[in-house]
Amino acid sequence: MTKTESGKKYALIAAICYAVYAIYNIINRIIYVSNSEYATITVFNILFWIGMLGMAVALFMKNQKIVIAAAGVNALLGAYYIVSYFSLWNLCDFLAYASVVVFVALTLKGNDVVKKIWFVPAAVLLLGCVIGWITGGYFEFLSAAWKSMLVSIVEIVALLFVGMWVKEVVAPAEASPVNEYATFNPQSINSTPASSSAIGGADKLKMYMDLLESGTITQEEFDAKKKQILGL
Length: 232
What we know:
Elements: H1 3-34, H2 43-61, H3 64-84, H4 88-108, H5 114-117, H6 120-135, H7 142-168, H8 201-213, H9 219-230
């Protein structure tokens, strides 16, 4: 399997995980609101769903810029919750998605440092979840908390595959434009057979005329190449 095929597979798995995670949270919130007299669906709930569904869609499309936007929404929500209800869980959630934004932005610039630290978002979120599970007493009430823990693991797996996808899609840095005249070697005029070039005689003559006018080759060199092209 090629790197491109692997990257597509990782992105698809991550997209499915995010879709499952988002749908579960939407259904769970709707059920909770319908059974509670005071609970409502807030703007932050909607933004959270948009962020998670956005990750699913962006990864399904394998669109790095949309991934940055969706992860940015999740990072901003994490920042809001840090300010409003500070906890290490919220801090790790923010850092996980902020690192996704940074990592994907780096891939667009061809920076391959991501290949060495691609696992950081998933690792940070896992740390936050474990801290939250311990401080929240999840392990003491496992029979009631296992669903919530399992869903969090789905998100961690999603971030793990996002990192694996990002590692595979690091774009090569843009090469500097090459000046064909600057790299031309005048000595090659008499050493390269006319039949070895794929371009036609007229194109060759024009190219060497341009080289003559730019001073890259001399008149003698141009005349020699002209005779070779025309078979004189």
